[in-house]
Amino acid sequence: MLHYISRRLLLIIPTLLCILVVNFLIVQAAPGGPVEQAIARLQGFSGATAGGGSRDMGASSSGVSRSSRGLDPALIEEITKHYGFDKPMHERLWLMLKNYAQLDFGTSFFRGAKVTDLILQKLPVSISLGLWATLITYLISIPLGIRKAIHNGSAFDVWTSTAIIIGYAMPAFLFAILLIVVFAGGSYVSWFPVQGMVSENFDSLSFFGKIGDYLWHMVLPVSALVIGGFATLTILTKNSFLNEISRQYVVTARAKGLTESRVLYGHVMRNAMLLVVAGIPQALIEVFFAGSLLIETIFNLDGIGRMSYEAAVSRDYPVVFGTLFLFTLFGLLIKLIGDLCYTLLDPRIDFSARTA
């Protein structure tokens, strides 16, 4: 097992390297790099400028675009040097990889702060959303899926399936808007705040008051995140249990006189949960990163998802690659943890016999 874990951890290094190199080449080819962004700001352009302004920014970041006409060439050269585009692409790539090996993600082009500090500043928001959404999803979905499997075809199974299908069909951002309209003073009641993680008077609250205020602000965004993953995991759990209940070992266990709870939770659950555990890495990645962007935007939460999107739009490359590095590393580690969870549920799985 230790040999397998060591091998997987070592494989993370070339995987990160390949992903960073590929994305570096793709991003460098994208029009409107940071040099053009800076020149456009100096000339008074905005992101909404139509016509020739946006077309002028389509040139390569390493060269001088048409939008630079009218500016002092020395100023343009200084801007190019400031963002590191006075060097060839391969030198910029090598410098970035060397710095990343030292966990130095550089400084944001437009935020004026180190990328590491920005990530640490935004991380609590994304972790709060991700952990609460994942925890609530699993606490509800697994018991509900088990009960649906036990009472398969009953009235309870039918109406819960209907509710689950409706929840699955509704996008998270649309559900978030519905929650705001109903519960955040949109048209009906005003029970919950519509934005932010804490209130303005958070610092003056007592310890338990701060906890209550924080949880109060988390209700709506976490509920919006839970709706999609909740439906998928419930159906997965139900189908896994139905598949295991029909197997011969369950019939044998019942024939031996074991209680139904002993059969379900002592035998069936261990095997059925393997499929559920297999979906944990993907579920966590989606909740932490893919699903949080729109939720952070709608509820005005300043997290990593929102920051990475804004960085991609403004071509803030240090922030883009810093968050990409974090997302990739987190995803690879979560997949490793998911594999190790298999052995806790089923000791018969032996990863030491695997070659990769």
Automatic annotation (TrEMBL):
TM annotation in the entry: 129-146, 158-184, 214-237, 272-299, 319-345
Protein name stated in the entry: Microcin C ABC transporter permease YejB
Annotated gene: yejB
InterPro entries xrefs: MetI-like, MetI-like_sf
Gene3D superfamilies on file: MetI-like
Major site of localization recorded for this protein: membrane
Domain of life: Bacteria
Family stated for the protein in its record: Belongs to the binding-protein-dependent transport system permease family.
Membrane topology (UniProt): Multi-pass membrane protein
A Pfam match: BPD_transp_1
Origin organism lineage: Bacteria, Pseudomonadati, Pseudomonadota, Gammaproteobacteria, Pseudomonadales
UniProtKB keywords: Cell membrane, Membrane, Transmembrane, Transmembrane helix, Transport
Compartments in which it is found: Cell membrane
Ranges for domain ABC transmembrane type-1: 123-338
